[in-house]
Design a protein that fits this description.
single chain; 355 residues; alpha+beta; Rossmann fold; 8 helices; 21 strands; globular; binds adenosine-5'-diphosphate; binds magnesium ion; ATP binding; ABC_transporter-like_CS; transport; ABC_SmlMolc_Importer; Iron(III) transport system ATP-binding protein
Length: 355
């Protein structure tokens, strides 16, 4: 498998909407993808993910900027000469062809000799776990199996870059979890460079070597799943990656690798550093970064307890609004709805976030 790098440099796309107004769908976006890397474009609906992907594939031409595949600017190259392949949300299989014919289609178009086609199809069916399914009609397969065929069809032409646009959105939860792991396994096995578009943070966290978080056509943050989850550069990034509680914070002292802060008068040293110097900050605590205690800087009343088996969520009314605390078993049975409690932070995983 060829391994290529991909680079977007100051890429923008301006559309005209139905009234003739300009929409800046993608706004000065730059990022790098290393050979064999799995990069996810993550963000809310309408933030420009699909447009970015379509520009990489060549279905849209950037208004500005460069897209380099192996250091060659491809913006003038038509999609069929770009050596990319896309997997869509709707599988897009041909219903009148069987599985093997569906997969072979791209190879036929490329005039690959029939004996090679047969070999390649057989091999790729094995890779996606569908050995022996070649002569079945797609309609006889489950959603997950059809998505595997779509993946096989994209992979079999040995593209340099594999592009995914929300490929798992049509599958039910269990299947989605299974396919997530499958996609990652297959991508690593074939070693292909991949760009994956999703609005689902769990998908992004599970699959990606690197996440490009987008908001309103712009890049909000680029980093590994850990970096973005643990060191969000903004409230938006922090909230998009998962439930988080915010508290007003006073910065007492910045040390080299940690910060002394005050929350409601109580002093803590936390290992996180503010991301810039002059801005306003809040303290960000994930539900797992808080504990219910007999003492603590935040007082509240338990409003709702949601039992989820291996943990419980406690929703607590406080002077800073509703706070959610994740509690692991063994559960304290004296904590019931309506009870007054204190909340303390786990300083090791608290974060100072730019407001
Ligand atoms: N062909 C188009 N013409 C006009 N506006 C478009 C077109 N395609 C996308 N847009 C607009 O560009 C923005 C980004 O869209 P899109 O890239 O599809 O976002 P996402 O995939 O993140 O949901 C949206 O505001 C969308 O309405
Ligand atoms: Mg989209």
């Amino acid at each position: 498998m060829k391994q290529v790098s991909l680079k977007l440099i100051n890429v923008s796309k301006v559309f005209k909407d139905f009234k003739g107004n300009e929409v800046r769908a993608v706004d000065n976006v730059s990022f790098d993808v290393q050979p064999g890397e799995f990069v996810t474009l993550l963000g809310p609906s309408g933030c420009g993910k699909t447009t970015t992907l379509r520009m990489i594939a060549g279905f849209e031409k950037p208004t500005d900027g460069m897209i380099l595949i192996n250091n060659v600017n491809v913006v003038e190259i038509p999609p069929w000469k770009r050596d990319t392949a896309m997997v869509f949300q709707s599988y897009g299989l041909f219903p009148h062809m069987n599985v093997a014919e569906n997969i072979a289609y791209g190879l036929k178009m490329r005039k690959v000799p029939p004996s090679d086609i047969e070999k390649k199809v057989k091999n790729i069916l094995k890779v996606v776990g569908l050995e022996g399914y070649g002569d079945r009609p797609p309609s006889s397969l489950s959603g997950g199996q059809q998505q595997r065929v779509a993946l096989a069809r994209a992979l079999v032409v040995e593209p340099s870059v594999l592009l995914f646009d929300e490929p798992l959105s049509n599958l039910d939860v269990l299947l989605r979890e299974q396919m997530r792991i499958e996609i990652k396994r297959i991508q690593k096995e074939v070693g292909i460079t991949a760009i994956y578009v999703t609005h689902d943070r769990t998908e992004a966290l599970t699959l990606s070597d690197k996440i490009v978080l987008m908001k309103g056509g712009k890049i909000e943050q680029i980093g590994s799943p850990e970096e973005i989850y643990e060191k969000p550069v903004s409230k938006f990034a922090a909230e998009f990656m998962g439930k988080i509680n915010f508290f007003p914070v006073e910065i007492v002292e910045r040390l080299e690798d940690r910060t002394v802060i005050k929350l409601n008068g109580q002093v803590y040293t936390i290992p996180s550093l503010p991301t810039s110097k002059s801005e306003k900050y809040v303290l960000g605590c994930r539900p797992e970064g808080l504990k219910i205690a007999s003492k603590g800087p935040v007082k509240g009343v338990i409003k709702t307890i949601v039992y989820l088996g291996n943990f419980s969520e406690y929703y607590i009314d406080t002077e800073f609004g509703e706070v959610m605390v994740k509690v692991l078993p063994p559960f304290d049975t004296t904590l019931s709805e309506g009870k007054e409690v204190h909340i303390d932070i786990v300083p090791e995983i608290a974060k100072i976030i730019q407001e």
